[in-house]
Amino acid sequence: MSGRLRIDVFFDFICPWCLIGKRQLEQAQELLRARQPDVAFTTVWHGVQLLPHLPAQGEPFAEFYRKRLGNADAVQMRQAQVQQAAQAVGETIDFSRIATMPNTADAHRLLERVSVLGNSRQRDALLERLFAAYFHYGEDLGNRETLIAIAQSCGFEAGFVADCLYGNGEPFVGNPGATGGVPCFQFDRRVTVVGAHPAEKLFGVMYEALLERTGELQPS
């Protein structure tokens, strides 16, 4: 079987399940490549700002989650659950380094700028660097200077991105296709899977989408 599969991914940088889901998707793609090496993927990333009403400077991370979950014990349990899920896909999340729950509007605008004016390799490098900045190093993705430095580390001149970083907390208006939550995966714009799921499940959905597209499997 040969062909091309379009995958639309809806995500936010502050959602750990989006990073976990990214790793699960990558593993699913490897499973499909092993079975169908002639299949090519087109992956399109759509930013979804989960907390558009956060102030431009963000909020203290620990305080944000204590208010959200009720108490420190609940926060610790939730973070342990997330870290365990991350480890299962070979990922590390260091909550101890995160000081700020950031406003991600400018981070999404930065990725959008690179996605439109750069190439897929540059976009993928920036996407990885932004996830690592938050979940590995605790960098503030709402800080304009931080975002410019991240862009420069991926080979972009400051002037290439500076005008898309507003720094005022203006919400990011992205694609509304992920109304059911993030991460959200759409395959061939027909089949939607919401949430971080095992690679085997995503592989199965992708494989069936390819079969339907090539006419080898008729939808029931």
UniProtKB/TrEMBL annotation:
Alphabetical list of InterPro entries matching this protein: DSBA-like_thioredoxin_dom (IPR001853), Thioredoxin-like_sf (IPR036249)
Domain of life: Bacteria
TM spans (from-to): none
Segments forming domain DSBA-like thioredoxin: 7-159
Record-given protein name: DsbA family oxidoreductase
Organism, scientific name: Pseudomonas izuensis
